[in-house]
Amino acid sequence: MRRLRLSSSALLACGFSILPVAARGADDDLLTVKGHPKQQYYLIGAADDAAKGKPRGLLVVMPGGDGSADFHAFVGSIRKALPKDYLVAQLVAVPSDDQDQVVWPTETLKDKKQDFPTQQFIANVVKEVKAIRGGGWPSRAASAGR
Questions:
Q1: 3-state DSSP percent of the chain in helix, strand and coil, to 5
Q2: Which of 8, 12, 133, 143 has the fewest Cβ atoms within 10 angstroms?
């Protein structure tokens, strides 16, 4: 299996905060980005009462291996190691039966299973979390890889 050479699991820490509103779903609910049925993710920690009324940080996780939802329990354990004011968005890779698939395709390293780059998937999840949480990112927002 060809993989994006970041590490066995790619983590993107977004160094900004989002303003809280009512949580959308429980940590075990698989969410889909509006208008993008192949872009699925878990939002872990959204139901945590400890950080209600406070800005939240966001950690985006792209699991290694096949990037499937099977990594949800492991990613949930990552959330437990973070400060209470952080959310975790676990992306779920588009499934494929191809052993030579690119698990997380990019603009330059494509795979036939998906017609969008992973960079866009990440941006869409961050935008959706921002929208469902009702907040905005401070201007100091930065992303890993820039």
A1: 20, 25, 55
A2: 8
Inside any domain, residue 140: no
pLDDT of residue 51: 59
Q: Report the percent of the chain where pLDDT is more than 70.
A: 67
Cα distance between residue 143 and residue 28, in whole Å: 26
Print the domain residue range for 74: 10-133
Q: How do 86-92 and 56-62 pair as beta strands?
A: parallel
Nearest to 27 by CA among 93, 74, 72, 63: 72
Q: Which residues contact 102 (CB under 8 A, 6 or more apart)?
A: 2, 3, 4, 109, 110, 111
pTM of the model: 0.73
Establish if 143 belongs to a structural domain: no
Question: Quick one: pLDDT at residue 2?
Answer: 45
